[in-house]
Amino acid sequence: MSSFSFVAIDVQQISDRIEIDELLARYARALDYRNFHELDEIFTADATFDAGGLGSPSGPKAIREMIEGTIGHLDATQHLVGKSIIEFAEGGDEAEVRTYLISQHIRESAPGPVKHYFLGGEYEDRVVRTPDGWRIAYRRLDRLWKQGDRAVISG
């Protein structure tokens, strides 16, 4: 006769993980479909986005302006996010999230023969539960590799 060990399942944490994964997917879709106004429902009112050389804007409006100014003129983008590692803080209303990403940027009018710029990286996020659901309070983009022509983005 075999013995089984049962682990208690925290249904709230499972639900939270699903909601956080969806939050990150909604961010990527907002960028790729140019629905930049949706970022207001993704970031907290006091959020900061450390985007390295692009700046560190605070607040949804400033974050939206940085993102739109960086990719709004492109013909297409695709931001693919991988499975996240989510570590909840005590109490469960805040979490640290690390997510790999690959983003593609296309601009047909870019100078030179290369019309694309690929970026591989990792988002490091701090997300918080709000009355309106999970939101990103802090985001940092760590660039791990790139391919193509950076002039595609610089416009």
Any overview of this molecule?
- With 155 residues, this protein is α+β, with helices and mostly antiparallel strands.
- It has a single domain, classed as Nuclear Transport Factor 2, Chain: A (Roll), CATH 3.10.450.50.
- 25% of the residues lie in helices and 42% in strands.
- It has three helices and five strands, in the order αβαββββα.
- Strands 1-5-4-3-2 form a five-stranded mixed β-sheet.
- A hairpin with a 5-residue loop joins β2 and β3.
- The N and C termini lie far apart (68 Å).
How many separate domains?
Answer: 1
Q: Treating each run of at least 4 consecutive H or I residues as one helix, how many helices?
A: 3
Order of helices and strands: HEHEEEEH
Helix content: 10-25%
Instruction: Indicate the CATH topology.
Output: Nuclear Transport Factor 2, Chain: A
Shape: globular
Widest sheet, order of strands: 1-5-4-3-2
Structural class: alpha+beta
State the name of the first-level CATH class: Alpha Beta
Runs in which pLDDT lies below 50 for 5 or more consecutive residues are: none
Question: Count the strands?
Answer: 5
Query: N- to C-terminal separation?
Result: 68 Å
Label the CATH architecture. Roll
Sheet with the most strands, sense and barrel status: 5 strands, mixed
Radius of gyration: 18 Å
β-sheet strand percentage: 35-45%
Task: Indicate the mean pLDDT.
Answer: 93
